[in-house]
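Q: For a teaching handout, I want to show students what a protein-ligand complex looks like in token form. Below are the inputs, and the small molecule is zinc ion. Please produce the holo structure.
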Amino acid sequence: MNSKVRDVSHLALPLHDGMHEDNACLSLTCCQCGAVLKTGLLAGIAQGKHWYHALPTTEQQGLVTAFGYQLSLLGNIPMVKLPSGRNAYFVLLDCACNERWLAVVEYYEYQPARYKATLVATARFENAAT
Ligand SMILES: [Zn+2]
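A: Here is the structure, written as tokens, with zinc ion included.
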């Protein structure tokens, strides 16, 4: 694995509960420079999925291991499984100071049309290849 995951923090920070999940936001303070990084929750999840699926299999495995999660396959689609058995998604937050942060978001439909999102971990992400 070329990339490195550092300073993993495990959290349980509610981000969203209910409808209108398309309005939900994720924000994180860059520990390096103090800037506040923000993304729309669904846009961040979609972008993170695309990024994660494009990684080599060893990187996908290495990332979930760094956080203590399990990798499972749905067909040939890699899914990140939390200890709870629920799916989690990586969200990338790039800072102007060149730090790249990874947020891990648990996101699922709790009841029909009621979505829950929880920030379950953050980490600093370094890619030796770039
Ligand atoms: Zn920063």
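A: Two things your students might notice: Residues 1 and 97 are 24 Å apart (CA to CA). Residues 17-119 form one domain.
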